[in-house]
Amino acid sequence: MSSSGTQAHPEGDLGRGAPGVAARGRGPNRKGDISQEDDRAPSAGWGAARSVTRVVAKTREPVRGPLAVMKMNHENGGFDCPGCAWPDDRKGLHLDICENGIKHVTWEMTPKKTGPEFFAAHTVTELSEWTDFALEDQGRLTEPMVYDEACDKYVPISWQDAFNLVGETLRGLESPHQASFYTSGRLNNEATFLYQLWAREFGTNNLPDCSNMCHEASGRALQAALGTGKGTCDIHDWDAADLLIIMGVNAASNAPRMLTTLAKATRRGAQVVHVNPLIEAAARRTIVPHEFAAMATFHATSTGTMNVQVGVGGDLALLRGVAKAVLERAETEPSVLDTDFVERHTSGFEQYRDLVRATAWPELVRQSGVREEQIRELAERYMAADRTVISWCLGVTQQDHGVDTVREIVNLLMLRGNLGREGTGPSPVRGHSNVQGNRTCGIDHRPAPQFLDALDEVCGITAPREHGLDTVTTIKAMLAGRVKVFVSMGGNFALAAPDTDAVMAGLRSTELTVQVSTKLNRSHLVHGRKALILPCIGRTEKDVQASGDQGVSVEDAMSEVHISYGMRKAPSDELKSECAIIAGMAQATLPGSKTPWEWYVEDYDRIRDTMARVLPGFEDFNRRVREPLGFRLTQPAREREFHTGSGRAEFCSSRLPDATRPKGTLVLSTMRSHDQWNTTIYSDNDRYRGVKNLRTLLFMNREDMREHGLKEFDLIDITSHARNGSTRSVYGYRVIGYDIPSGSVAGYMPELNILCGLDDYSRQSDQPLMKHQLVTVTPTSNGATTA
Questions:
Q1: Could you tell me if 298 and 288 are in contact, meaning their C-beta atoms sit under 8 angstroms apart?
Q2: Which residues pair with 680 in a beta bridge?
Q3: Which segments of 26-131 does DSSP mark as H helices, in order?
Q4: What's the longest Cα–Cα distance across the chain?
Q5: Angle CA(348)–CA(217)–CA(745) in degrees, nearest 5?
Q6: Which of 433-437, 537-541, 577-581 has the highest mean pLDDT?
């Protein structure tokens, strides 16, 4: 059947009843307006410099922009980049920056303002017709606004009245579980702690976050295997590894500062293997921006020594194939296994060994889409390396069997003792600045009992013990009328979540939506019967409270915690910090609360002192976070101490799932373009894939194109096929021939999020299958193939 309202056109209607994600303001692209060029230029370097120059020019910040960049990721009074979670250079590199980080900061620093005059001039219905780029391009929000249904506009509201509206609405609910508290991942640690404290004192664990859509599989797999939800590596391990295996990530766009590490690795003779359906820019060459001689001479360094183009969903079979080759070699060369590590520190090896031995090579090749010879070549590199790090991102986790795949990564590492030694270990790439810190500091819909016990004892509350709602179940609960209040700390939930029509319908069915934001976005226009926009300061801006300038802390992808200080004045005196906004809402919600909300906000050291008593590893927090480069949280698994049921690292013997596609279908993986950060689109270009002036596209194997009777840039319709039998379609996209395995296709999010239904989520991780969608592709329904 075809579910209603799930049709999106690239020239589309951006009205309130439509998804509003496919267009970028140019209307239907004609073939003369778009192009796809050679994409083999080095990553970073002068191409990045030119792109950054254009962005800085657009912000009209030729002086403050560059000055801000000089303070980004700097240990001496600088601020943390609000972009990716790649760790800062441990030697205090003065230009530890990247193109997308600079874009992110300058996008925040725009002099444009979206104040009451703007909202007075435009109804929500009118703004719903605007492109997403145009909405954010209006500039920084300047004061709190409330939706007025009578005039269909946002109108000014005082901060106290806004807080009272939140408090009165929450207190009027039949149950605390009728509210859901979302965070996007850029929330600092101190605000995170206050946010979860508010929700739990109110009485619910409904704390969905972006991890539910990104790395939930990583956390669950690592917790089961090693007794920790995090990777064990630090940046020194990457620098000491003989082999780096990078899976399901295009670092050039998603974590560009990783390119420096990859370039260093190849220079010292390490092997760097990229496993991805597409050979991305990060797998080729880079010109490191802070290496001035390289920039001056256009000298590029290799960032990869091998590419393995696995089919979408084939990663688990590939890894098991490598393990099979290792175990085969061990039959004649027992030393290829670290028998001492396996016997002393692991459980379940024999069962896993027997399972791998019983898996036939033809099946591994069929499921992975990789030739046996290449799998064996990867295994040879693995066996030749004394120290191996395996890293992965959403290309692995946003699959149906993502948990099993991450478990297989750990299985493979354990075979050769690549845990708890320098230069070894599992290392997930977190894509957002403080998403790992959010989880560490309490944003978890399935909190650990010991965390809740400590929270109760230290903070004097009685936190609920039942599991709360995650992202997908929150959307379903909104649609069913069970969630009536939705609070979002940052992000653009309407576009970031799966099944765009469903999430928009869910948001519109609520009594109240609260968006804490820096800029206008689609989620402000897809709101409940009552709605608030509460503007906050950015991380680049001074946070001044009663005791003076405040610093906030963040945790990177490798468990390093450091402090961040804003350096510039906020664009409006009406803006509040995220801590102050949360405390204001909490006070209004919990009038009898013994939590000293105002006292906390006066001096964030007080929040950190409380966190130090609740959170393991945060002891003496205020002193340690102010040390140069901060401190690293204790990681027991790194010391070969495993907090599992057996007290050992656990091998996983999951059966190989059937990752093959039904006849006539393709497997879709969604991804970001280079000129994009999450749902923020800087332009319609994707420099590293050679695309100009186009986002409504599908990258497709050229032989598959011929079989479908398609030519370059033909117009196509894409239909997804959900588990429950429903279909969702987008129309009039362009097909582009690309070096991608047969049967696999790729396109951009958020435009294609509409194709992922709410029932299409992993039963292992509960993550939406953003990178594992069955689709069919046909020439566009109007019969045209060119325009």
A1: no
A2: 677
A3: 45-59, 64-71, 99-108, 116-121, 124-127
A4: 79
A5: 115
A6: 577-581
Give yes or no for a contact between 696 and 19, defined as CB atoms under 8 angstroms apart: no
Name the pairing type of β-strands 691-692 and 35-36: antiparallel
**pLDDT at 18 > cutoff 50:** no
Which is more confident, 186 or 120? 120
3-state DSSP assignment of residue 700 = strand
Cis peptide before 256 (omega within 30 of 0): no
**Residue 246 β-bridge partners:** 274, 391
**Cα distance between residue 196 and residue 250, in whole Å:** 32
Model confidence pLDDT, tens digit, residues 53-110: 555 555 555 545 555 555 555 555 566 666 666 777 766 555 556 666 677 677 778 8
Q: Count the Cβ atoms, other than its own, within 10 Å of residue 154.
A: 28
Q: Do 316 and 306 touch, CB atoms closer than 8 A?
A: no
Q: Is the pLDDT of residue 27 over 80?
A: no
Give SS3 for 703.
helix
Cα–Cα distance between 572 and 578 in angstroms, integer?
A: 15
Q: What number of other Cβ atoms are within 10 A of residue 87's Cβ?
A: 26
What is the SS3 assignment for 724-760?
CCCEEEEEEEEEEEECCCCCEEEEECCHHHHHCCCCC
Distance CA 207, CA 185 (A): 12
Residue with tokens 């915690």: 561
pLDDT at position 554 is 93
Do residues 485 and 511 touch, judged by C-beta distance below 8 A? Answer: yes
Backbone φ, ψ for residue 681 (5° rounding): -110, 120
User: 171-180, 456-465, 557-566: which has the minimum mean pLDDT?
Assistant: 557-566
Handedness of CA 410, 415, 421, 422 (dihedral sign): negative
Q: Supply 559's token pair.
A: 């468990």
**Residue showing tokens 């295996």:** 245
CA proximity to 320, closest of 661, 762, 765, 653: 653
Strands 285-287 and 301-302 turn out to be antiparallel
CB 318 within 8 A of CB 370: yes
List, as one string, the DSSP characters of 122-190. Answer: --HHHHTTS-HHHHHTT-EE-S-EEEETTTTEEEE--HHHHHHHHHHHHHTSS-GGGEEEEE-S---HH
Separation of CA 529 from chain center: 30
For CA atoms 713, 748, 780, 664, give the dihedral sign.
positive
From residue 315, how far is each of 320, 404, 408 by CA, in Å? 9, 10, 9
Query: Residues 6 or more apart from 127 whose CB is under 8 A from it?
Result: 135, 520, 525
Alpha helix ranges (H) inside 546-694: 578-589, 597-602, 604-614, 621-625
Asked if residues 392 and 207 have their Cβ atoms less than 8 Å apart, the reply is: no
Question: Which residue reads 């360094």 in tokens?
Answer: 301
List Cα–Cα distances, 648 to 340, 390, 473, 644, 717, in angstroms. Answer: 13, 20, 33, 6, 50
| pLDDT over 60 at 618, yes or no | yes
CB-CB contact of 652 with 224 (8 Å): yes
Q: What is the pLDDT of residue 294?
A: 43
Residues 6+ apart with CB under 8 A from 12: 18, 19, 20, 22, 23
